[in-house]
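Journal club prep — side note

Before the paper discussion, L.F. wants everyone to see what a predicted structure for a comparable chain looks like in token form. Sequence:
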Amino acid sequence: MALKGENIRLVCFDLDGTLIDKTVFIWSTLHEHFGSDPQKRKQAAADFHSGHISYSDWFDCDLDLLKQGGADRNGMFRAFSKLKPTPGAKECLNTLKDRGYKLGLISGSIGLVLDHFFPEQPFDHVLINRIRFDEEGRIAGGTPTPYDLEGKAAGLLELARREDLTAKQCAFVGDNFNDLSVMRAAGFSVGVFVKDPRVIEVIDVHLEEDDLRALLPHFPGPKEP
């Protein structure tokens, strides 16, 4: 029987905790680094999840809290210093590209993280939050992604549309509860470094190895049409 990955054309990834180690959510890592008010953070999250504010409002609130803590571009890079790509991440991505897969990133993280740890930009498509900085490196606003949390599934469908594929021809690789919607939508879903037991209930494959190269046997290359 053919491996399911042979039917896949586009492999999409989460970022925090999947391709980046030593963090679960980069927003939490940054807030802790800059000493943001935990009660204000908690209230903003609660307001979003209860529907009182939009994701864009929550994004703006996060930026305001970071600015209040003195966050700027260089300070964020210092906060990243304790992080690193997960074991085997770069080799895994490069091998998937060499085997003929398109690569996508669908994440509620921040583009600056991706630019810092993957400057070679191996992805064909990136859906992520973006922060703007002024000439002095101060936070000057940003663009929130519409493709986080439950919106990740819509992100997968959007990338499938761009590539003229169906969702069944797309895979998703992630680790946490915020990936559940997109894992259900993908034709093939893989859990790595899993942090929430609900992930195991919806994925096709659970990899327990601590190296992302364990993905590669499941993606031998797209099958010829």
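L.F.'s comment for the group: The chain has a mean pLDDT of 95. Keep this in mind when we get to the figures.
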